[in-house]
């Protein structure tokens, strides 16, 4: 008789584990430095609108390791833990990391595009209440942080690779196939983004991460990287 003595932590795949650790460490540093009034890491490394003076191209990468609070961090890290290790086993660690970062970048570019298309309407709304508000200062108000875009890419990959796997989602007492779960999430994000419901959440960035994921998974499926018996079901 054999026993599996692997701990919970050791059962997590290496890239997923490192992503979890990095995100938690960065959040702790953000919290500590913010409490001491030393530096606002989210403002420094979070994604700003490209027209603003606070924008730096490196933010397209760094923003996905920052979070606005513990709840934001917990939800994203729980999803990363839940889906990450399985996808890392299927894709392989290098391809999985490339996929994760690419989805995060896709989300960043989607958010920049949305800001570019909508900033004037938002600015007009502000100047209606505060006439003469400096446009340069307004640009720097546009900021987003979080791993959500990359995580939505993971959800998309999971649904495309394991489309019929049953998932249990609170509060529903019955299983939902992964493909329908993700389609539902995507439809909600599109609705919230178009209707400006739940403002303060980067809905189109989430969709950008999913769109980036679709192209990569379809490409890998087409070139034979993902096939039945090799990860694709």
Give a brief description.
With 233 residues, the protein is mainly α. It contains nine helices and four strands. Strand 3 (166-167) and strand 4 (176-177) form a beta hairpin.
Q: What would you say the CATH architecture is?
A: Up-down Bundle
Strand numbers in spatial order across the main sheet? 1-2
- Strand-and-helix sequence, N→C? HHEHHHHEHEEHH
Mean pLDDT, to the nearest integer, reads 88
Total beta-strand segments: 4
- How many domains comprise the coordinates? 1
CATH H-level superfamily title: Rhomboid-like
CATH topology: Rhomboid-like fold
Give the % helix.
Answer: 55-70%
Structural class, by secondary structure, is: mainly alpha
Give the percentage of residues in beta strands: under 5%
Q: Which descriptor suits the 3D outline? A: globular
The gyration radius over C-alpha positions equals: 19 Å
In the predicted model, the low-confidence regions spanning at least 5 consecutive residues are none
Largest sheet report:
2 strands, antiparallel
CATH class: Mainly Alpha
Helix count, DSSP H or I runs of 4 or more residues:
9
For the termini, the CA-CA separation is 32 Å
Provide an overview of this structure.
The chain is mainly alpha-helical and 233 residues long. The chain has one domain: Rhomboid-like (Rhomboid-like fold, Up-down Bundle), CATH 1.20.1540. The chain has helices at residues 14-35, 41-45, 59-62, 70-91, 93-129, 135-139, 148-161, 178-195, 203-222; strands spanning 47-48, 143-144, 166-167, 176-177. Strands 1-2 form a two-stranded antiparallel ribbon. Helix 4 (70-91) runs antiparallel to helix 5, helix 5 packs across helix 7 (148-161) and helix 7 (148-161) runs antiparallel to helix 8 (178-195). The longest helix has 37 residues, at 93-129. It is globular.
